[in-house]
Every structure is written in structure tokens, then in C-alpha cells.
């Protein structure tokens, strides 16, 4: 049996010279041929592997028979951000990992097929699906990231009136500000946001909500908290306040919205080993940095970044310094970085070997720009201003998994403020789950 035909990719030279989307899309004949490889299982494991609940088998069957409109309607019904997920969802760990075709050859290219279908939908114009009769119920959604957008779209379809409150000037959260243009173009996010507005979702920007109590007084009968975990984590070492030291959140935001206004040096060090670190490193190359290094205190084996992202970064020219820990940033305007070599000790709570400094191994690395990509946390002031909202030790909101309900009546939560930092598609799943629970809650209230 023939394996999948790969989707086209930009040449390496073109990739690192701009922010053009790396990956191309299937042509119709390619998509139909790939859909024909599906085994059409009676109990499709790919469906179970999708946190957003897409009927993967269903849309592939429609695609095979060239029922393209039926395919994208099926995706849209369950995932209001299908075009986004097709570009950034880790399908190789979810639906494609579960694919039965893997035992025979290769898994079906589900992400590529979904992108073909949803891009076609965007090209033709998104059709508004049927909505339930208006309930007259108002729901406030705090945050316009993937969880908030998914919750709002489902509530609108269920007949309610959702209003999203976003503190930034432009909605979209991490989709708009945290994912590089070459992975997720702004035009795709904008089209999905436009669909939500046409659906009846109101989005209010430049409006930060700190206290949830006043929202009830304004007539909202339920609240969904989706503020993310956007507070940067710092290393706590000398020199972090120097010019030339950025957090990954700030760096990626500025690179996506105004890349020409972001000046970086010739030598860039990215501290961290997750996907955000890989995005930051590849973005720095596109901003014409001469040398970009990932600095990580463990080995590649322990890196949390997806393997594909690591290999793409390495292919583009990023080099890696493993078992290395920065201890000080040098200069009046960043000129260098003191580091120490690390060894691996016993496993810590994460299940990974604990990095241990090696005495006498200190060295200095010449650096012009540093990007801190070592994590993020929730805003600690939010829970303090909302007494009764239960949080855990990490400051994350505690919810009931089946309903996303918090400890406060009529208040639900999802996304990174609950998980601490999961995938976009998992946040979408939580937003959908919350919408169903909110719908039931509102009906009980009468």
C-alpha cells in the first residue's frame, strides 16, 4: 500500500528569510487520494484521539467522495477553529497516533486533510450553521484565547448571548500573539474571529476584567474564565533587566505584530527547551540573527518540545547547547552570558533527572540578545480579587473535569488558567465542555 504523499514545504533558504507559511497545502486530487487510504474503521480510534470531538472518519469519508462542503460543515460543527488546529495541532500525538493505518504503513495525514478542507471553506466563505432559538441569557467570557473562543461559539449556537472581554487591543490571545506567523498566519485567525462575530459573539477589547462579581450585577448569568497563564517566569539571576533581554511572550508578540520594529543582535540565546523556545529561536533567524542557540540545562532526551519542532529548528540552523545553565547576564547593554555546565542527578517530581551544577565548569558566552522561554504562570492577583475561587499551589483554577465548573456558583473556567499550559486543541475541548455545562446550568436557573 502506498504511503502518504507529503505536503509541499518551503525551501530552507526561503523559510529562514521571511515569515511566509512553511507548509503548503494539498491539491484536490492529492487530498482525495490520501482520504482513499483510510480503512474506515467501525470504531475509529482517530475520533477518540481528538480533544475537540471532530468526527474525523466522517469528514474523511465525505472528502473521499469529493463532498467538500459536507466535510467542512462537519468539522465546523465541532471545532470553530478548525483551520487553526490543522496548522498547529500535534496530530501525530493525538488522532494520527491512534490511526489504524499506522499498522500497515503510515497514519492518514489527518492534519493535512483538515487543512485542505478548512482552507477551502475559508476561500468559499464560512456558512453560518443553524442556531437554537434565543434564550435571552447573557454569558461573560473573560479572555479571547482558544478556550474562550470555543466556549463563545458553542454558546451562540445554543441560543445564548456570549460577550468576550479581552484586555488586549486585538483579540485572539496566544493565537494572535504567541504563535509565529510562519506557523499560523494572522489572516487565518482574523477569518475565524470574523465567523464568531457573525455568529453573534460580541467581543470587547481593551477591557480587562479583574473582579467577576460585578459581571453578575450587569446581567450576566454565567461566567467563563479563560484568561490563560500569561505571566512570564524569570530565572532570578543578575542582569535580567538589561536591554536585550526579552521574555518569549514579549518577543513573539512583537515579532508577529511588528517584526520590522524589533531589533535584535547578531548572536541570540534562547533559554528553555519547550515549543515556545523552538518558536523563539526560529523567529530570531527570520529576524536576521547570525547565530541562534538553544540553551537547555538537561539533554535533548528530556526536552519537552515536540520532536518535529526540534528537528525543524536544527535544520534551519539553530544550534543547541545542552547541559548548560546561565548564571548571569553581562554588560550595560547585554554583551555576554556567564554559564555553568550541568550534570544529571536523581529524578525530580517531573520524572526527569535533576540538573546538577559541575564545579569549576563556568564559562562565558558572547551574546547580544537573550530570550527567556522557561515557562509562564497565572496572574496571582486574579484569585486574590475573587475570594472563594479555589486555586491550587501553582495558582491554577480548580475545576470539575466533566463540567469545568469552579468553586463559585455560575462560574466556569478552562484553558491555560486551569491546565497551566496545554495544547490549543485541548483548550478548545475544555471551552466546548464548559459551554455544554453552562447551557445546562442556565436552563436549570429558568
Key phrases:
single chain, 446 residues, alpha/beta, Fumarate Reductase Iron-sulfur Protein, Chain B, domain 2, FAD/NAD(P)-binding domain, 3 domains, 5-stranded parallel sheet, 18 helices, 16% strand, globular
Task: Describe the protein.
The protein is α/β, with parallel strands linked by helices and 446 residues long. It has three domains: 12-124, Alpha-helical ferredoxin (Fumarate Reductase Iron-sulfur Protein, Chain B, domain 2), CATH 1.10.1060.10; 138-227 and 378-445, FAD/NAD(P)-binding domain, CATH 3.50.50.60; 231-376, FAD/NAD(P)-binding domain. Helix content is 36%, strand content 16%. It is built from 18 helices and 16 strands. It has helices at 12-15, 28-35, 45-48, 56-64, 68-78, 82-88, 95-98, 110-124, 146-157, 174-177, 186-199, 213-217, 248-257, 275-286, 307-316, 380-384, 416-419, 424-445, and strands at residues 138-142, 161-165, 202-204, 222-225, 231-232, 245-247, 267-271, 291-295, 319-321, 324-330, 336-347, 353-357, 363-366, 369-372, 376-377, 411-413. A five-stranded parallel beta sheet has the order 3-2-1-4-16, covered by helices on one side. Helix 2 (28-35) crosses helix 4. The relative contact order is 0.13. The mean pLDDT is 94.
Strand content: 15-25%
CATH-derived topology of the largest domain: FAD/NAD(P)-binding domain
Number of strands: 16
What is the helical fraction, as a range of percent?
A: 25-40%
* Structural class category: alpha/beta
CATH architectural category of the largest domain:
3-Layer(bba) Sandwich
Integer count of domains: 3
Oligomeric description of these chains: single chain
The level-1 CATH class of the largest domain:
Alpha Beta
The spatial strand order of the largest sheet comes to 3-2-1-4-16
| Biggest sheet descriptor | 5 strands, parallel
Mean pLDDT over the full residue set: 94
Radius of gyration: 23 Å
Q: What would CATH call the homologous superfamily of the largest domain?
A: FAD/NAD(P)-binding domain
- The end-to-end distance, rounded to whole angstroms, is 57 Å
- Large-scale geometry: globular
